[in-house]
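Progress report, Aim 2. The chain analyzed during this reporting quarter is listed below.
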Amino acid sequence: MTPIFKCLICKKDIERSTKTFWKKKGHLLCSTCLDNIEKSQTLK
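Predicted structure tokens for the chain:
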């Protein structure tokens, strides 16, 4: 079972591996927030 973390932006509960948590240094985002960031970057 994968651990549950909080998204940094919307605080939604998300499941991510502990390996991903350490690789990202705890900066985890849900897929919705990641999509929104990518959209805003491609529009610039």
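The mean pLDDT is 94. The beta strands are 4-6, 13-15. These observations will guide the mutagenesis work planned for the next reporting period.
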